[in-house]
Specification:
Blueprint lengths: L20 H10 L9 E6 L5 E7 L7 E4 L10 H12 L3 E6 L14
Parallel strand pairs: 3-4
Antiparallel strand pairs: 1-2, 2-4
Length: 113
């Protein structure tokens, strides 16, 4: 069980039918709902001439930040990432998704990874 801190913190309770880590990985892909979470896209130019993209939930708000690092080809639109963003929003947390260099959009430099 994970303990969160904050104004609306409550323990994470996994449903009995999702106790398996394998099911927890598969379940988000079966959820066809779309959410209304809007993320703010911020592109940071890097000293090497390339860029990195960040996608923020409540960037200017105060409070803790949940940093989400999806897999190499994962994006802010991935179902599992969207579910975590929704969970952060429900707990009044800020969140940011780091788009890996070259993962979602081609970068300028060949050696991004």
């Amino acid at each position: 069980m994970v303990e969160l801190r904050g104004p609306e913190a409550r323990p994470l309770e996994v449903p009995w039918w999702l106790r398996s880590a394998h099911l927890q990985t598969i379940a988000p892909s079966l959820d066809r709902r779309t959410d209304g979470v809007t993320l703010e896209h911020v592109r940071h130019e890097l000293p090497d001439g390339d860029f990195v993209d960040l996608h923020w939930l409540d960037r200017r708000a105060a409070g803790p930040i949940l940093i989400l690092l999806p897999g190499m080809q994962g994006t802010e639109r991935s179902r599992c990432v969207r579910a975590m963003i929704e969970a952060a929003r429900a707990r009044a947390l800020r969140a940011v998704v780091l788009a890996h260099r070259g993962g979602a959009h081609p970068n300028r430099l060949a050696g991004s990874y």
